[in-house]
């Protein structure tokens, strides 16, 4: 069952990008063969790191190599090369876990592994980030959102998607106050009714809605813009919030 916000809650989603936020990072495979532009920053500030399947190739075969050893390499291993797999299997500090079950995505299975680890080791985290590259197959991108819906059944730690453009998360039933005054804001936001129609009221955005049913058969809120340092979203069914981000000049 998905959570309900019986009382208004305050979230600061873009703080997941801050070095000060304790986080686990799952680096997801992508069809583009591109390294996530925040790899270095996320790596340096992560308490737990997992490489999913073919992403390990990008690190091992790229300029990072042996200096970047994650806690886990997981997946059904249909993308990782034999050479890369053998390398990580030879590293005592890396747990290589084959997850062949095709009833769940590699992301979902990795999330289960990471959550078990942080519970057993009692690692205190504010967030779990899944870093991915936008583009490629649409069905693959939709599967990432599906895992966001599954996440509350797997972990009590908030789960965020971090693409090369935006941070995405689910807002649950009730009122959410979003702090948009971190310095990471890129300006654009989206409120997407994934799964079921949702009656939504917002404030603090350029185009607010008032007790309006958002659905793919009626209206969705995309390309909206932040107009206040705090904005609110009230919904009666979960919605996907996407927030465009920008990085400080000294962040790579």
UniProtKB/TrEMBL annotation:
SMART domains referenced in this protein's UniProt entry, alphabetically: TPK_B1_binding (SM00983)
Domain of life (superkingdom): Eukaryota
Protein name: Thiamine pyrophosphokinase 1
GO BP annotations, alphabetical order: thiamine diphosphate biosynthetic process; thiamine metabolic process
Chain coiled-coil ranges: none
Boundaries of every Thiamin pyrophosphokinase thiamin-binding domain copy: 174-241
Source organism per UniProt: Fasciola gigantica
The keyword Protein biosynthesis is annotated on this UniProt entry: no
Higher taxonomy: Eukaryota, Metazoa, Spiralia, Lophotrochozoa, Platyhelminthes
Keyword entries, A-Z: ATP-binding, Kinase, Nucleotide-binding, Transferase
